[in-house]
């Protein structure tokens, strides 16, 4: 059973509200059916990836953003497990280092973009600069931007300009052959609490939990506002956001894989056809090989 991927599509603009998107929707499937469907979609992705690589005309940039414990890492692991690792690049962005702070906020993300024929996955992304930085505006001061030497100067116009920079950045990428798919894993506060408790109670998962996670959880409402504003400002026809229900990890993985599959299918890519001269050469080589004793 295939789900309707348009259900997760976030249309940008003033009407967008996160509350209009469910965190627990499961496509009327159970876990067993969901896993079986995912297995089928992964086979399709594998076939699409091979054609993508052979055609060498487009790159795919997949962006994952979410609150802690929403399932980004496991989604990447499960959805991409059937792909050829030589055609994938995964980047997990942490706090910028001194070199990265010495450049504009998009610099390190531009460096990590996938080349044509490949799939690039950004676990967190340039959107951290309008999410965590918006919740903690003091982080902006580390960028040493001229005329922004105190938090009071980081006003609405600053964020408006930053959203515009992101839209222009993504528009440029799309114009040059990169397909951008942005996923917000929409987990409920109640489910996050349970996953935190699971990490604490299971010794093998203790390493996943940080005291800092609890501090960020206390700012939940501010983060939801930041996500809503970011999606509202940057979900475009050329680089859409998809709000994925993430309370059930198995369903989130299926939904993500189907969105990626539909995007690849829509490209109508074909295997390259060799020029006649090269085709004739292959025919001659084939005959030569068959004549070998």
Automatic annotation (TrEMBL):
It comes from the Bacteria. GO terms for molecular function: polyphosphate kinase activity. Residues 29-267 form the Polyphosphate kinase-2-related domain. The keyword Transferase applies. InterPro entries: P-loop_NTPase, Polyphosphate_phosphotransfera, PPK2-rel_1, PPK2-related. The keyword NAD does not apply. Coiled coil: none annotated. Keywords: Kinase, Transferase. GO terms for biological process: polyphosphate metabolic process. Belongs to the polyphosphate kinase 2 (PPK2) family. Class I subfamily. PANTHER family: POLYPHOSPHATE:AMP PHOSPHOTRANSFERASE (PTHR34383:SF3), POLYPHOSPHATE:AMP PHOSPHOTRANSFERASE-RELATED (PTHR34383). This is Polyphosphate:nucleotide phosphotransferase, PPK2 family. It comes from Pedobacter insulae.
């Amino acid at each position: 059973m295939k789900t309707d991927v348009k259900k997760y599509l976030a249309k940008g603009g003033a009407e967008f509200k996160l509350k209009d998107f469910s965190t627990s929707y499961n496509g009327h499937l159970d876990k067993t059916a969901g896993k079986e469907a995912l297995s089928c979609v992964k086979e399709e992705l594998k076939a699409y990836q091979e054609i993508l690589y052979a055609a060498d005309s487009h790159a795919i940039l997949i962006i994952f953003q979410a609150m802690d414990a929403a399932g980004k890492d496991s989604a990447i692991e499960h959805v991409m497990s059937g792909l050829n690792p030589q055609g994938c690049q995964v980047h997990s962005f942490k706090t910028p280092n001194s070199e990265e702070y010495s450049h504009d906020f998009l610099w390190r993300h531009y460096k990590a973009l996938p080349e044509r024929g490949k799939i690039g996955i950004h676990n967190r992304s340039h959107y951290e600069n309008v999410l965590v930085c918006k919740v903690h505006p003091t982080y902006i001061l580390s960028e040493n931007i001229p005329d922004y030497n105190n938090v009071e100067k980081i006003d609405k116009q600053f964020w408006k300009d930053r959203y515009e920079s992101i839209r222009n950045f993504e528009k440029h990428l799309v114009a040059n052959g990169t397909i951008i798919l942005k996923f917000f894993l929409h987990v409920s506060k109640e489910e996050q609490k349970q996953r935190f408790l699971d990490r604490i109670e299971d010794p093998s998962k203790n390493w996943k939990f940080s005291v800092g996670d609890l501090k960020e959880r206390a700012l939940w409402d501010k983060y939801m506002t930041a996500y809503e504003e970011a999606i509202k400002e940057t979900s475009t026809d050329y680089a859409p956001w998809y709000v994925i229900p993430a309370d059930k990890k198995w369903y989130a993985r299926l939904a993500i894989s189907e969105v990626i599959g539909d995007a690849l299918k829509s490209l109508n890519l074909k295997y390259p056809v060799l020029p006649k001269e090269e085709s004739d050469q292959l025919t001659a080589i084939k005959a030569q090989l068959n004549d070998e004793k």
